[in-house]
Amino acid sequence: MPCAAHPTPDPWVPEADARASALIDAICTRLTHRDAITLRMVAAAGYSLRAVAQVTGESPRTLHARWARITSVARAVMRGQDDAAA
């Protein structure tokens, strides 16, 4: 039974999942191989850097630096998609 702290999750929307997957693919084409692997691992871990750090054994500082590069590329890709849609 859901409670206020853990409400029922939104129903799965295949179209949204496909869009997210396509966006991750587009971002990965502009990343180094290592950064692309990190992005896919973080996405699979529910966007938890802590979970990825525990699995990979990387220091949080290294992982956060890599994540900063990834988000910078992601912003550029998303801006490009917004420009193309306009």
Describe the protein's architecture and organization.
This protein is mostly helical. It contains four helices and no strands. It has a domain of 60 residues: Arc Repressor Mutant, subunit A (Orthogonal Bundle), CATH 1.10.10. Helix 3 crosses helix 4. It is globular, with a radius of gyration of 15 Å.
Unreliable residue runs: none
What do the pLDDT scores average to?
Answer: 82
Strand content: under 5%
The CATH class of the domain at 26-85: Mainly Alpha
Structural class by helix and strand composition: mainly alpha
Major sheet: none
Shape: globular
Intertermini distance = 43 Å
User: Could you spell the SSE succession in H and E letters?
Assistant: HHHH
- In CATH, the architecture of the domain at 26-85 is Orthogonal Bundle
Helix fraction, binned, reads over 70%
